[in-house]
Sequence to fold (105 residues):
Amino acid sequence: MPCTLARLPCGVIYTQAFSEHLARVHAEQADNHPKRVMTFEYVRCASGPMRGRAWWQVLWLPDEVVPDYRRYRMGRITVHFPKSSQHGLRERCLDYLNDRVVVRP
Fold:
């Protein structure tokens, strides 16, 4: 099956499958987080004992701490990618495959 890619203005590249996954998470959790912005945080260690390891999480930050210029439309939802996550995802692609988020080189 062909893969449709998109790029946010901040440079984050993602697949349609990833966008649909985040939309499902948003639909399930948004009512529990009023006046908060969905935030996708990604960390990849470049050095030290955890070098090469990476992890991600979805957080809900208060609306007033996320500036408008750091909010991006991904399909039907608004999502925030912190600057550090944008840096860690540089030249990588977010995908969703077999019920898990995958970061492709």
The CA atoms of residues 19 and 47 lie 30 Å apart. The chain has a mean pLDDT of 92.
